[in-house]
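// run 5 | inverse folding | seed 20
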């Protein structure tokens, strides 16, 4: 199924959202046609990429194992 075992997504993180936050997530997921989990995963990875760009040079060694979102 996976050519590269590193592509298997078997690590889980739980997050809690209040009513307004989950309503926003549901709305965007509905508008984009994405599953909520996919939307949150993509948004998280995009945010990480933005942080990496902001912190470039300060914490390069901490980000060496993180792949680009996409």
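// decoded
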């Amino acid at each position: 199924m996976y050519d590269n075992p590193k592509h298997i997504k078997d690590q889980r993180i739980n997050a809690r959202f209040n009513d307004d936050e989950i309503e926003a997530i549901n709305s965007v997921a509905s508008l984009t046609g994405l599953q909520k989990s996919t939307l949150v995963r993509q948004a998280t990875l995009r945010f990480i990429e933005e942080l990496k760009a902001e912190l470039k040079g300060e914490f390069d060694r901490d980000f060496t194992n993180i792949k680009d979102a996409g």
